[in-house]
Fold each of these.
Amino acid sequence: INLRDPVIYRISHNAHHNTGDRWCVYPMYAYAHPLEDAIEHITHSICTLEFEDQRPFYDWVVRECEMEAVPRQIEFARLNLTNTVMSKRKLKQLVDNGVADGWDDPRIPTISGLRRRGYTPEAIRNFCREIGISKADSTVDSRMLDYFLREDLQPKAPLAMAVLNPLKVVITNYPEGESELIEIENNAKNEEMGKRLVSFSRELYVERDDFMEVPVKKYFRLFPGNEVRLKGGYFIKCNDVIKDADGNVTEIHCTYDPDTKSGSGFVGRKVKATIHWVDANNSYPAEFRLFEPLILDDDPANEGKHFLDQINPSSLEIKQGFVEKTAVEGAQKNDKFQFIRNGFYCVDSKYSSDDKLVFNRIVPLKSSFKL
């Protein structure tokens, strides 16, 4: 660095987004930064490796300005994650180009984006503690952060049942107009969170993936003639399939065995699958936003491409479904839940309202990543 003629100010005759045209002289970051640290009595200023060449200037400014407090600048490698970008310049391009839904888009690693996605401070701290700091550039697998999210949310997020791709089930031998309450745990890994009562009636919704008219090998969920257990409830058996004019399955008709209620001690026979459900007459319609990595930089086909050419076209999938009332009654924005068999979700702080529940998937339940 040339300390004989350092650049301290720049002249810019352009309107500033905050101050307008009040002045045109602006201090350079490399000059303002050490003075700010000294004025605020910062003892150690941590920055990334590209500022290492600026350290002599940093020390020179503090010394020549005869600052009372003398901070020390230390450089470390920046945190790089797969499948995203950490650079503010690149993030701005994503926002300006409409790839990201603003600076709080849950797919980008801004503070507001992470908060809206449902990331917890504890998970981020544990992740940072595990990876440590280094002077060598490296890239961390983003699935490692997902691992710490699951570890943190598992004992804290209450269980709820949500159906993201609903298929209607009619239990033909259940009394019309009647309902009952079924007891289900609030967290299978944390008994202290207690249990809740969930409404059960003649008409339910199940996941469309939990039914196959012509089952493949080793498929044990609903298909004509097969019996499954409803989570916390009864055995039901599929008898009839109702289709529309185009041949699409619109609902299935089942019968239930009243002797098989969970907790009743029934041992007469066993089933090979348990599926979740919601009561069609006692649930909220909801939107579910499923996120995948925004940048596919770990795809060999994208190697060497500009990051804007590595955008994942399937990074956001929106589904319309239903969620049980009992678990989410009175839920506030950013509240977190574990939707059985679907993943960890939080109430979206941007699009959710009193009239419409919107949930963001924080992280799926499982991953192939091993710590």
Amino acid sequence: MTEPVETTRISDTALIFEGGGMRASLTSAMVVTLLKAGLSFDWVAGISAGASNTVNYLSGDVWRARRSFVEFAADEQFGGFRYFARGQGMFNAEYIYQQAGGPNEALPFDWDSYEASTGDMRIIGFDAESGEDVVWSKKDTPHIDDLMVRVRASSTMPGLMPPVHLDGHVYVDGAMGEDGGIALSQAQREGFEKFVIVLTQERDYKKEPQKFSAVYRGIFRKYPVLADALLTRWKRYNETRERIFELEAQGKAHVFVPDRMPVDNSTRDLSRLAAAHRMGLSQAKRELPAIRDFLSAQSA
């Protein structure tokens, strides 16, 4: 029988998960490692795939944290060109987020543990009509359906998945917003000065501007502010990473940066996803003492 893990509650440091689609096969290992280490953050934020990491972390479910980005990709209803042709998206978002998480389904979500957890969350989506970010917290999710539709909205990659209509608004991936996909500014607005940030690209990565801007403006002609946001995201994203590495240099952030990212955002090969997760576990285990030291130093 497994011995219960002693929990260390962390209130002065924000935990932030970047998105990146199936690259979260690697970074979900940080969810697993933090949970097994008993590190319980009171404030956790995520955008896109980072939103899934966020809610899995708050539910305390190491099984779901891994399965969401490894085995689940083999589910025949996960997505593909057949679903895209039907208008359901390259990733079958309604199934992934709003059906599979139910009891006795393919990816059951531990709602009771999520609701009982001491931590709060911030999930960020992007309003395709107004161009504004929307920030959801636990108070916005009194029921599992309220939570999962917001995780879906935050994860809706424009063009690859149909937008989410919710409360009279049209939402897509929060990565289109102010920080390009990493919820640093929101954490700073809420008063945090110390951060554990989980990135999904290697340290020397630089996002390049989108080519064929006229094509994107044509595709999203109904949502011109979304087209603008998509075409300028590269700049916001790179600037946010620069801010993060500056915080790291100042000793204000522990930044988990993949030593190597062996998959991309749409990888569905289970062997590659499993290998990425193992890489993440190895790196997270190696960094765990430094994370503990960072948290202890910040709390002293």
